[in-house]
Amino acid sequence: MNWIVERMKPNSIVPALLYVTDIAGLVKGASENKGLGNEFLSHISAVDAIFHLVRLFPDPATGRRIEHVENSIDPVRDMEIISQELLYKDMQKVKARLDKQAKVATRSGDALKKKQLESFEKAYVFMQKGLDIREGVWEDADVEALNELGLLTAKPVVYLLNTSADDFLRASSPELERVRSWIAKRSPGATSILFSGDWESDLQLVEPEDKMSYIQDALADVPGHMVAPDTGIKPNSIECIDPIVNEEEKRIARALVHIDNGEGNGGSLDNWSDLLNAALRKAMREYTMLPAIITSGYKALGLIHYFTAGEQEVRAWSLLAGSTAPQAAGLIHSDIEKNFVCAEVMAFNDLRAHGSEQEVKKAGKLKTQGKTYAVQDGDVILFKHSAGKK
Fold it and tell me: What pLDDT sits at residue 335?
């Protein structure tokens, strides 16, 4: 987006936003209304995806006082408690609906009611095995029935592993292997990101011109840090995120470290792996995991974004992957969706490569798309419509 803004110099800039709500208060027994209980669980019900913040600090050797509801630091135990409480609450909800649905299906003899009953029964048996709903393989009818319940364990999850500043700079933690082993079993394929809240907080207070010297001084004080202070790149930061997607993508990301020390020269943003790798490249340059955290949250929500660009405004719009051009237009105004005619579309990478809309058009890469076009991540779009015309 910055590239577009620099060239358009619009009067207004509206970036895409990821809204994050801090929800605290879950303790063992929350599903039975202990602690904040139902209040906590109702707050989680209102969100679309979960950043599961896991505490990996302090190292007991530091002698820092432990402030924890369980009076000790055990990240695997903490993850287990939270995950089980969410699962127990879902089981209560499904069981209540199951009992009610059984009576309704028996009385009515309605085929749809019976099919819904089967979906609830299948889900309940699945959760009795200690498995989260998101990990199941469900038919369309199951998804439709379960979506009515707003189940907590159906929400996508990203694990944020908060460690000390020193451990972050080493790209390691004494608990990291055990924690990621648990995640791999409980939430196969889920992204986990090692970061340091202390480090990120301190880094935000440093003036931009002083940031590199601050980082170099910090690295010099940490044995076994990621990289020599004068290189400005930390290849081992790839291991701060697990998994990117798979080993092949890790290989690509490692290669990108060496070929892209500048903005946007190491690959396109045509898919989610490229987008996450771009966030990693930013993290490697600036020693912050915030871009990767934000990007992983965006990905977990199944979102993509497209741009509208002009002298008055450059704006990034968020929408669900797979949305059509008219649906994307509806984000701007319902009348544009209703009176959609066509969309003039160019990929951001083509715009960046050719330098202007005119040059993209000359290259034959400015396309006119109709109602069935599925918007791609990073599209730059001009919608044409008949709204307000007689």
Answer: 94
